[in-house]
C-alpha cells in the first residue's frame, strides 16, 4: 500500500480508500455483520481513509460504520463525511444552509461515535446554488474548522467545472480537497485535465468509483446507470478482451485508478470483506500498461464506430 498526502492537509492516506456507501445498502441489501467486518479488514490491510455521508442509505451507512468504528482505534484512520445531501423515508433531500450544515456535523458525530471529523465535505454541489455553497455552506464549515470540531474542509461533485468555480470564488485555503468520481478510470480520464489546477491551489484530490459504477466489471452496469449505450457496449467489449487474457477488468481498473501519484486516494465501496482483500491484492501487483492501452483503444474505437452509425 502506498500513501499520499491530501493536498497540504498533513493527512497521509492510503492510495486505496474505503468508501462506506455500500454500508447503507445503496446498491443492494447488505448483511450488516459482513459490512462491519469489511471495515475491520480494510484497516487491517493498511487502508486508513474512510469516506461516508449521511445521504448514503439515508443515514444508515453512518450508523453501520459507527458500529464498526467503536472497536477501531481512532488514531488508525482518517474519517471523511459530508453535509448538504440527505434523505428521509426513501425520498432525497438537499439543504445547503449554514444552520443545517452545522446540525449535520453534530448528528454525524453522534451516529459515528466520534468527537472529531478529519475532513468535512459539501456533498454533490451540482444540486446546490454554487453561490450559496461559496458564501454560506463553506464559511460555516470553516468556522467549525477554526473551532477544532473538524480538521479540514472539502467539496465533492461529478462536474469538475463546478469544483473549479467554487474554488475560484472562495478565499484561498477555504477548500482543501476535492472529491470527484468516474473521471479517472479506464474509460474516462477527464480529471487529468484539472490536476495541475488543483495542485497549483494546494488542493488535494480524491478519486472515486474506479469501476465507473459498474461499467468496468464482468457483471456489467445496473439498470439505472446513466452511461450512453455506445459506452456500455465499448466497456463490455473491453471486459471481454481482458477476460480472454485471463486478466479481470476489475483488476486492471483498480490498478489504473491508483496509479497516478497526483491523486491522493481512490475510493471503492463494498460491504463484503472478500472484495476488500481482492482489491488490495490487485493493487499490490504491477499493472500491465500494454493492456491498459489496448483497453482504452477498444473503448475509444467502439464509441467512434457507434457514434458514426447513429
From TrEMBL:
A Gene Ontology cellular-component term: cytosol
Residues covered by the NADP-dependent oxidoreductase domain: 16-298
GO molecular-function terms, A-Z: L-galactose dehydrogenase activity
SUPFAM superfamilies: NAD(P)-linked oxidoreductase
Domain of life: Bacteria
Gene3D superfamilies assigned: NADP-dependent oxidoreductase domain
PANTHER family: GH17980P-RELATED
The protein's name: Oxidoreductase, aldo/keto reductase family protein
Organism encoding this protein: Bacteroides fluxus YIT 12057
